[in-house]
TrEMBL record:
Organism: Salinisphaera hydrothermalis (strain C41B8)
Name of the protein described by the UniProt record: Citrate utilization protein B
Keywords associated with the record: Membrane, Transmembrane, Transmembrane helix
Residue intervals passing through the bilayer: 114-138, 158-179, 236-257, 263-288, 300-323, 329-349
Superkingdom, natural source: Bacteria
Amino acid sequence: MSEVNTSDFNLADLARMNQDEAARQMSICNACRYCEGLCAVFPAMELRRAFAGEDVDYLSNLCHNCGACYDACQYAPPHEFGVNVPQAMADLRENSYQRYVWPAAFAGLFQRNAFWIGLTAVVFVAAFITGVIGWHAAGAMFATYTGDGAFYRLIPHGVLVAIFGALLGYAVLAMALSVRRFWRASHSGEALEPGSIGQAIHDTATLRYLHGGGPGCTGVSGRPSDHRRWCHHATAYGFLLCLASTSLATVCHYLGYEAPYAIWHPVVILGVAGGLGLIAGPIGLLTGRPASARSRNRSADIGLVFIVMLLATSASGLAVLVLRATPAMGLALTIHLGIVAALFISLPYGKFVHGLHRVAALVRHAHEQRAAARH
Ligand code: SF4
Ligand code: SF4
């Protein structure tokens, strides 16, 4: 199969090409069914005779690119059928992120993702540094701050709440509208039972389908293992622990207990545990990236950008903890805040979207499986 230069096509043309290719491969798989125990894609596929555009969008978001079906497939290249389900699904997923993004004018941010997010991080870091230098007398950046409210003598708490509240509010709105577009396009509109939602939450929290059908995903060694699943767990729960730490710190602040907190304080314990998870998980995902011929596309690039942003966030956050009683705290804090701001605003335009679309796809999958079991 010859290489196609995707930059020659607009988003709609590319969507049709990706959907047609995924539908072609699903038709072959539906006749073969050898991989039906590997993940959610194949049981969902077996409920269909034909594969319309939105249906394959949905199936592509059930795939998590473990590669097990590629490794097992007797019709993979160089066979003339050219079946490479991970590649077809990854191409379609990446295209679907752009088609359902809000606002639609920002679809291009998924192209050259490293450039745009890197630029955003540089701009935010520069803005925090120049803001602090401009606000205070010269030298304040490298003064030593200790005691209650030390961080807020550099940047007032109200300013931080306003900046990060606005960024996070925008990101949540953009992601909610993106998921709503995806959901409306790929779901029939039937009412959902609470059990379907509960099943999807359970499958998400346990990463049920990251087993590659039992032995795990194929990693750099070429052998299946649970490495990728555990790294995803560390990353996801690390992120949630950091969120819990920040939320608890906000509550403590309004109760009159100001940061920085003692090392044994729950805010610090949650933050350190989350930060370590956000270092171990992304490093494991980076070093465990499979080197097989399957699924080389921009999805891998946006995944890499997100991993680097998570690592930068956790490393700079831990640097603030270590340096908080030294003259380097000001610079460490402003760099950390700039990176976190860039992470927040880029959430709707990078790999984080995968998690949201995947949860929506798992809800639909649970709904379909329960409906099929009743008939
Ligand atoms: S990926 Fe290959 S082996 Fe697996 S179901 Fe499809 S055609 Fe069959
Ligand atoms: S790559 Fe893994 S998750 Fe994707 S369809 Fe194949 S077996 Fe399923």
